[in-house]
Amino acid sequence: MRLWIMRHGEAQAHAPSDALRPLSARGKAQALESAAQLRGVPLAGILASPYTRAQQTALLVQQALGGALPLHTVPWLTPDTDPGATLCGLEGQALGEWLLVSHQPLVGCLLGLLERGEPVALHPMNTASLAELDGEGALAGLMTLRNLFHPQQ
């Protein structure tokens, strides 16, 4: 199994609620820069947080990759989700390559859980950063970080 974990692009500072914060112009450019890293990757689909900025990031990636990838909104990718709950959510996904689009602190803690077995942020995950992990499955401590891309925008 290969997982690609992406933090949403930069969001605007103000909105009626955190969940409704849209991407800034810079955030859209960041998302597209990271999407370019996924060209040619045989993704099974995209799993995204329901928050506006993550949805917009996922849609930009989907469009940049030709628009045919399935995009699923899941409740277990919000900022404060327990990383263990995210692993439980991933149990229902078929093996293959998946892109997760989510937020801090979840993305950092999820990387730590998958790589080292502890939900501790080990790597910086700036806006639109993209991590590539592989392993036998999405299991705590059993995946290997292969690449970490940070957009230049």
Trace the largest sheet across and list its strands.
Answer: 3-2-4-1-5-6
* Fraction of helical residues: 25-40%
CATH class: Alpha Beta
Number of domains: 1
Distance between the termini: 30 Å
Q: For the record, what is the CATH homologous superfamily label?
A: Phosphoglycerate mutase-like
Q: What is the chain-wise order of helices and strands?
A: EHEHEHEHEE
What CATH architecture label applies? 3-Layer(aba) Sandwich
Care to count the β-strands? 6
Number of helices: 4
Task: Compute the CA-based radius of gyration.
Answer: 14 Å
Low-confidence stretches: none
Q: What's the main sheet like? A: 6 strands, mixed
Q: Which structural class best describes the helix and strand composition?
A: alpha/beta
- Specify the overall morphology: globular
- Can you give the mean pLDDT? 95
CATH topology label: Rossmann fold
Structural account:
The protein starts with a strand and ends with a strand. It is built from four helices and six strands; from the N terminus they run E-H-E-H-E-H-E-H-E-E. With 153 residues, the chain is an alpha/beta fold. The radius of gyration is 14 Å and the shape is globular. 29% of the residues lie in helices and 22% in strands. The longest helix is centred in the middle third of the chain and has 13 residues, at 52-64. Helix 1 (25-36) packs across helix 2 and helix 3 crosses helix 4 (106-116). A six-stranded mixed beta sheet has the order 3-2-4-1-5-6, sandwiched between helices. The protein has helices at 25-36, 52-64, 83-90, 106-116; strands at 2-7, 43-48, 71-73, 97-102, 130-135, 143-149. It has a single domain (2-149), classed as Phosphoglycerate mutase-like (Rossmann fold), CATH 3.40.50.1240.
